[in-house]
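Narrative progress, year one. The postdoctoral researcher (J.K.) led the effort to move from monomer predictions toward full complexes, under supervision of the PI. The following entry was the first complex the group processed end to end, covering 511 residues in total.
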Amino acid sequence: MTDDWIYLDFAASTPVDQRVAELMYECRETGFANPASGHVVGRKSAAIIRNAMAQLEALLNAAPGTLVWTSGATESDNLAIAGGARFRAHRGKHLVTMPTEHKAVTDVFRELEKQGFDVTWLEPGENGRLDPDELARALRADTQLASIMYVNNETGVMQDIAALGSICRERDVLFHVDAAQAVGKVPIDLDVLPIDLLSLTGHKFYGPKGIGALYIANRPGCHVEPILFGGGQQRRIRPGTLPTDLIAGLGLAAEIAASSIEGDLRHLTSLRERLWAGLRDVDGILVNGDLENGFPGILNVSVEDVEGESLLLGLDPVCVATGSACNSKAQEPSYVLRALGRSDRLAESAIRFSLGRSTQKKEVEFAAQRYRETVARLRSLAPKAVA
Amino acid sequence: MSEDPYSPLVREYFARPVHAGDLDDGVAVAVGSQGVRLELSGAVRDGQIQRLRFKAWGCPHLIAACECFCARYEGEPAQSLEGFLATDIMQILPVPVEKTGRILVLEDAVRSLGQRFCGGSVPA
């Protein structure tokens, strides 16, 4: 809590952990050389990267050699979906996903549709969850890839990744998981979960921006075609000179997460309960998503008969996200919330509170109080007549 | 990249709309379109606007525009309402051009109020 703002937008980005920042700064001295260079300074950079890889593998219990560095989750999603679909295109061109995925996923599928792929868009239930039977029914003989996110970035809804992945594995369908909101926040064991491709990014779990990774399971038929071409680094799957300092930062963030994930979850669960306790009595308030099956760091609520943009400004200085792409130039209700059956007006009033490791009890209490006051004030400003 | 879509004046009027409310002894008009709802009420004496109040359901720019209008037109001749232009308020605050439609709802309400004042149904 600062004097100027209360940051409750951790799903958008997290602050870099101080220990991570210090290591990255140090790396500018010790790891500046190109890690592909064979000389002694280059080998120092390569060693830093190997260490970071081991840290990330440990967090995910991923087998050695299964991770590829990328610039972040958007690139990982593109590489997994476009690269995976193209790799298996000779077998079939049917793909499966959901309209509630992040744009970094949905826009890739829309692009693939233009290129002749056939995409089935599976609708979620009202709680945002995908029924595994729905996925099973959607798979066809020519289905090659399905992509379902782990934790929804707007609602926090968590899918049953184990069940969905098992269905894909039985049918030899590549299963991609956008885990940008999950890695470092919920336990993920890639030795157990039937996931073929998994996207992650550093800045969602107290690491730096501009660095992410794609997990590619080491099993027959699981591979991606590159979408970038160049120097042949990373087994030609993702070429380009590796940013040693960013990778070192992500690695340390992963190590810190591995040791703090259970405590973080308890902390977030307690905070969300407190936040919801402060909001639940507001007349007309609705939870978007599923508290029972949701990541505890996210609480997304809509409220009846309150204008969304005014609600967002009224919450100032609480930094949250709105359910709409809300700025002065564009106001579109969230496509994720519309897919959950919310009306345009309710979707426009949605506020996503996302909590983090440093969030304090007094901050969520302040946020809840400000929300209640703002809703009451805006309702008192409104004419009684219904337009 | 995002810039602050609200000027300090918009923030001030939105946070402290001292003219929010309605008048028991005034003339009131209500309009609703462009996804907003608006009520204006006012009282005049000897052809001069004594008090103005508003109620609004809409974005911060609309609420600020209503407050700005009320603050500027109290004490002015009732006749002046009929010449009210939304573009004037949009320049003062300012309001982004893509929200013109909403502020035109205010213009409709103001002109309607002006017609009520000057049409003979003005409270003493």
